[in-house]
Amino acid sequence: MARSKQTTRGAHGFTIVELLVALAVFSVVLVVVTAAILQISRVYYKGVTEANVQSTARNIMDTVAQSIQFSGGTVTDTVGAPAAGGSYDFCINNQEYSYRPGYKLVDSTPGANETNHSLVVRTVSACSSPTGQTMSGPVTGRELLAPNMRLANMVVKNVGPNLYQVQVRIVYGDDDLLTGPTTATAACKGVAGRQFCAVSDLSTVVISRVK
């Protein structure tokens, strides 16, 4: 008696070649998706960093400009070309501003080109001539910068009767992300990690309206 032979169509599985092709396609898609996510993350963090630096620079500019406009009293000019890491001061009425340019503000023990105090404002009675604070030691007053930022440049200069030029340059980032990190013209390099670097440079002329 002859046995009947049955053939089932479509019962075979994937071949090794088909599996390799599928794996290659999946890998390419995964790489593309990962690269897109990383790029989106870099753009996001760059935006956050720039917004924080812009906000800090704007707050400093507004604080200084409004003090000149409405507080009256003596306004002393800043020094012409401060050295990085030095301690400098200027007065606006009874507000004394002490600053240490070029050094990155940190909360921990400062290392090279780092400081625990960058731009501090305090109330001083009759501040017609700044008494000064040593910014490398303990200070009193309110810090105007946030960690990882540095005050690259600070200008308050009389440019006419009751007219004052105010310029603020704030830089965010580690030394290896910057060109001239301790100079007044510190800027971001076009390198990997640039999402963690930002610069805000603001300038205005203020009229002192109160004498």
Keyword list:
211 residues; alpha+beta; four-stranded antiparallel β-sheet; three-stranded antiparallel β-sheet
Could you characterize the architecture of this molecule?
- This protein has 211 residues and is of the alpha+beta class.
- It is built from 1 helix and 11 strands; from the N terminus they run H-E-E-E-E-E-E-E-E-E-E-E.
- The strands form 4 sheets. A 4-stranded antiparallel beta sheet has the order 1-2-5-6, with helices on one face.
The helix content, as a percent range, equals 25-40%
- Give average pLDDT, whole number: 86
Strand content: 25-35%
Low-confidence stretches: none
SS content category: alpha+beta
Topology:
Layout: H1 16-70, E1 88-92, E2 95-99, E3 104-105, E4 114-115, E5 119-123, E6 142-143, E7 149-160, E8 163-172, E9 178-179, E10 187-188, E11 198-207
Parallel strand pairs: 3-4
Antiparallel strand pairs: 1-2, 2-5, 5-6, 7-8, 8-11, 9-10
Summarize the structure.
The protein is of the alpha+beta class.
